[in-house]
Fold Cdc37 C-terminal domain-containing protein.
Amino acid sequence: MEEIKKEKEQLDTKKAENLKKLKEAEQKLIEAKEANKLVYGFKGIYEEEVRQKRLGPDSLDPAEVYESLPEELQKCFDARDVKLLQETICKMAKYHIKRCVDSGLWVPQGPEGTQDPKEDKNE
């Protein structure tokens, strides 16, 4: 009987030790999560400060604008080739205008200008 009592005490002691370790681990996890929030919070603040310093005259971020450009235009800026940029923009404009005409979105009306397709429907 004494032996069983001793084993029970040992188990209770181990259980208490394990619970203490568990609570310590939980506390460390909470602290780590808080530290992580601080680190990422500071990182976000830093990144925003860097972005603010990059802003152009009209408050546009050149990096964001560059990333939004079609790959063809990005290559022109990478090469710093003004002639290539002009040719590419011309080619892209012709392509998009042709699509607008072909779809009926833009209806050319000769040398004087264009006529709004909505006006044709009202007549």
DSSP finds five helices and two strands in the chain. The CA atoms of residues 90 and 113 lie 19 Å apart. The longest strand covers residues 107-108.
